[in-house]
Amino acid sequence: MQILPFYLLCDESGSMTGDPIDAINRALPDLHHEISTNPTVADKTRFCLIGFSDDASVLQPLVDLSDIDEVPALSAGGLTDYGTAFRTLLRSVEKDVAELKAQGHEVYRPVAFFLSDGIPTDEDWPTAHRELLNSRYAPKIIAFGIGDAEAQIIGQVANFRAFIQKDNSVSPAQALREFASSLTRSIVRSASSISSDGSSDFTLAVEEKVPGFETVTLDKV
Q1: What pTM was estimated for this model as a whole?
Q2: Any idea where the VWFA domain is (predicted)?
């Protein structure tokens, strides 16, 4: 069977309090429901949740969402540490792909949705980021920035698509609801596009435009 691993990395820094973190936590059950009740999507998709700050406080290992009762809630605290996110993701991807292959599955290139509301406090995060992108199973990264996140950094993080909160007329909570809807649609559409016999190429189905966000030009490498 062909499996598509999806990862959601969410900034849990101290500024992610109130509406922003609540908006994500309200959306996760919808994601769980959408995937777990759709057998076609659930069979082809595995999902991992990583909440990061100074230290990853939430790590839901890669799992078929139909196998769990609920997705763990994120919480706010600590500083915005991108290095933690990328190092945790790298370890998870390497472990997950190895296990899926050992189970006899074919594994598509992993996809990671990265969400941050601030500027990274760890200056050495580009090192962890390069190690992730240079790894054997480097994921496609779609990055979303809200609040104080800087478009330049969000564009540097992403290697597939990047978005930044449009303006102050859209609250972080509203922007996050749009992000969550985009995330759910992307996972469902992408997993649905994988053919049962592997005869057609997989296309990552991520919106080019998301309400409340502006598209950011990616850094060239």
Answers
A1: 0.93
A2: 5-183
